[in-house]
Structure formats: C-alpha cells, structure tokens
Amino acid sequence: MADENTNEVVAPVEGAEATAPTEGRGPGRGRGNRGGGDRNRGERGGRGRRDDRRGNRDEEQGEELIEKLVHINRVSKTVKGGKRFGFAALVVVGDGKGRAGFGHGKAREVPEAISKATASAKKAMVRVPLKEGRTLHHDGLGHFGAGKVTVRSAPAGTGIIAGGPMRAVFESLGVADVVTKSNGTSNPYNMIRATFAALGEQTSPKSVAQRRGKKVADLLRRGGASAEVAQADAEAIAE
C-alpha cells in the first residue's frame, strides 16, 4: 500500500491481516456472543434454580410420606435372542395420618422399578377415616379375586395384628391398633387390593350424620348410651 505524502510503498505489518478482520467483525459478533453467552448462562441458571426448587419439594414430600416395599419379583420376557429379565415392585405409600395408596412398576433395574411403583402409589392415595387417629371406626370385609380379608377395630394397646402386605398398609396409614385376618390366597397383589377394598368401605359417624341430616350424638345414643356419654363421644370424634 502507498503513502499519500511520500508515495512510498509501506510494507504490511506482520499480523495486520490477522488482526484487521478480527477488528472488522469483532465488535458486533463479539458483543453478540458475549450477550448470547450471558443470556444462555442466565437461562441455564434459571432452569437450574427451578429444577432445584422442584427437587426440594420432592424431597420434602418424600420425607413426609412413609414408603413400604411390599414385594419385588423378577420377571422375564422371551424374545428372539433369548430372554430379557426385569423386576416388578409393589410399594405402599402413606402419610401416617389416614392417607395411603399402593402402586406397582416394572423396569430392567430394581431401583427404577421401585421409583415407578412409588410414583404410581402417590397418585392413587385415598383417605380413610380413623377413630381417635389410631384405629378403625368399625369392622369391614374386603374381597378381590381369591383374596378375602377381615379388618376389625381394636382398643388402645392392641397393636397391629396383621401379617405380610397388610401390616405395611396399616403402618403407612397410621393405624396403631387393628386386628386383621386374611383368608384364601397369599398373593401380595390380591391381599393389598382386598385390604384397600375393605378400607374403602370405612365410614365415620360424622359423615353418616351429615348424610342423614342428624347429629352425631343422636346416632351414638342408639347404642344405649346416655345423653352425656353420647355427647362426650361425639365431641371426641375428629372425623
């Protein structure tokens, strides 16, 4: 390139060609890249914060719920190349305050099967009215398939007289005193379903009084109790 005053040819400086294109396109693209990077980092950071909050809520919910692994079974599927093995898990979940549910899940690994079953159980939770927060209001019968179960209310100090899958249901439900009996099959799936069928028929005096348009004390007096005792028992009923 020539100088206007001396008409001398000035040799290009080494590295000028490398720096000039960078200077020509740098400001716009450089700022754009920096801005885009900041925005991307901001978006990623925002998503991370939202995920962290969601994870905290899940952890808090997991701390409040009682999870019981009832049964796990290895299952197989025959395919062209041989057999594919997996695992099936049965889980009972409850809050210990009158709400419980059960679910089952299948996966190639045990932890994944348990997590699927737990998520299914949380979606299927039902509320069961409890007497004094420790036992059932009345006796009940449950039936599913070849499984038949009987559940009975019990006085304080009796404990959970139940075995196998039924014990897991009442422990997660928050029942402290109950007497149960299972007849027929010992299949845990049918026993769990029969137990929840019996719990689904549970009703409290308060709900019956509201349905019939009466007072709880009036219903309790039909058993031969005095008006004072019936009124005291009606006030002690929480549900």
Explained architecture:
By secondary structure, the chain is α+β, with helices and mostly antiparallel strands. The chain folds into three domains: 15-56; 65-126, Double Stranded RNA Binding Domain, CATH 3.30.160; 129-236, Ribosomal Protein S5, domain 2, CATH 3.30.230.10. 46% of the residues lie in helices and 25% in strands. The strands form two sheets. The protein has a four-stranded antiparallel beta sheet with strand order 1-2-3-4. A four-stranded mixed beta sheet has the order 5-6-8-7. Helix 3 links the parallel strand 7 (160-161) and strand 8. It is elongated, with a radius of gyration of 34 Å. 24% of the residues are buried.
Descriptors:
single chain; 239 residues; alpha+beta; Ribosomal Protein S5, domain 2; 3 domains; 4-stranded antiparallel β-sheet; 4-stranded mixed β-sheet; 7 helices; 8 strands; ribosomal protein; RNA-binding; ribonucleoprotein; Ribosomal_uS5; Ribosomal_uS5_N
Q: What is the CATH topology classification name of the largest domain?
A: Ribosomal Protein S5, domain 2
Low-confidence stretches: 15-24, 40-63
Instruction: Please give the number of β-strands.
Output: 8
- One letter per element, helices H and strands E, the order comes to HEEEHEEEEHEHHHH
At CATH level 2, the architecture of the largest domain is 2-Layer Sandwich
Shape: elongated
Query: DSSP strand (E) fraction?
Result: 15-25%
Q: What is the class of the largest domain in the CATH system?
A: Alpha Beta
